[in-house]
């Protein structure tokens, strides 16, 4: 918990390892035992065939909500499954209390299909600013962390996004068409141009990690659910990258963003992608 007069940054110095342990524990207890062992009755659809939820999502989020709330009394949790059950809980992002932003299984479709390309995402935000994040690819045994102003790390090693090599096409992961409006589809078509190599995205959290590692040049996403983006955007920033909406301003986890938006390895790449997203197609 926050001690008297302690800042959130000081809390993280003391307890960030405990947060990491809580993330690992939730995955070990609720996610990994169900990986490639899901029964039919443990999988449901939310808004459609590409929007799945499993018992692993629900139970891991419940466990994380309890553990994170205990670590930081007075904080609130905005989790994907809780918001699906009660959309009003999303409004906590606008409040003054510290907020844990949780996606228990990012890449549920991959998880259901037995693909190891999924992760657990946790971020800590305060008054709209993401301060820390944890990205845990449990099936791969990889943990990425970031604290604002202190860098991004993968399994303890510092991450640097770097700059794309000159002269080659920029690889950009893009939103699934099922999650885009007609206007967003037109904006994304701006990426189908010389020098850009768009491809469909997988788990958002793992795409952000790929940017932070210098393995992917950018993403172009058309949705703004905070649990998908908060952890990864901080990871990218702390690795030296940046993010911009179509209007050229950084993405806000509190919402009201001009979509699609981009996150990229460096400022020049982000500006190029954001410019293409503004170009009528």
Automatic annotation (TrEMBL):
Residue intervals passing through the bilayer: none
Protein's UniProt keywords contain Hydrolase: yes
Keywords associated with the record: Hydrolase, Magnesium, Metal-binding
Domain of life, per lineage: Bacteria
Name of the protein described by the UniProt record: inositol-phosphate phosphatase
InterPro entries: Inositol_monoP_metal-BS, Inositol_monophosphatase-like, Inositol_monophosphatase_CS
Substrates-to-products reaction catalysed: a myo-inositol phosphate + H2O = myo-inositol + phosphate
Top class in the EC scheme: hydrolase
Xref: Pfam families: Inositol_P
Alphabetical list of PROSITE patterns matching this protein: IMP_1, IMP_2
Catalytic activity, EC: 3.1.3.25
Source species: Streptomyces camelliae
């Amino acid at each position: 918990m926050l001690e008297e007069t302690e800042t959130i940054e000081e809390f993280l110095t003391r307890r960030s390892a405990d947060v990491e342990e809580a993330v690992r524990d939730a995955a070990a207890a609720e996610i990994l035992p169900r990986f490639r062992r899901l029964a039919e009755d443990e999988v449901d659809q939310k808004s459609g065939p590409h929007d799945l939820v499993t018992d692993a999502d629900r139970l891991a989020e419940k466990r994380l909500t309890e553990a994170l709330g205990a670590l930081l009394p007075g904080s609130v949790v905005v989790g994907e499954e809780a918001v699906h059950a009660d959309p009003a809980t999303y409004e906590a992002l606008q409040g003054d209390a510290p907020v844990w932003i949780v996606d228990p299984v990012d890449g549920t479709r991959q998880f259901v299909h037995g693909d190891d390309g999924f992760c657990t995402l946790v971020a800590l935000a305060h008054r709209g600013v993401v301060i820390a994040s944890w990205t845990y690819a449990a099936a791969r045994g990889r943990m990425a962390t970031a604290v604002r102003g202190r860098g991004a790390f993968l399994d303890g090693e510092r991450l640097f996004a770097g700059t794309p090599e000159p002269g080659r096409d920029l690889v950009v992961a893009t939103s699934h068409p099922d999650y885009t409006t007609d206007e967003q589809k037109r904006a994304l078509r701006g990426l189908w141009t010389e020098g850009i190599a768009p491809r469909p995205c997988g788990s958002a959290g793992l795409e952000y990690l790929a940017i932070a590692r210098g393995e992917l040049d950018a993403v172009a996403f058309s949705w703004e659910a905070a649990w998908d983006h908060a952890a990864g955007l901080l990871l990218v920033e702390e690795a030296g990258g940046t993010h911009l909406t179509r209007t050229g301003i950084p993405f806000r986890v509190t919402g009201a963003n001009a979509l699609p938006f981009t996150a990229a390895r460096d400022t020049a790449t982000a500006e190029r992608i954001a410019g293409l997203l503004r170009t009528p197609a």
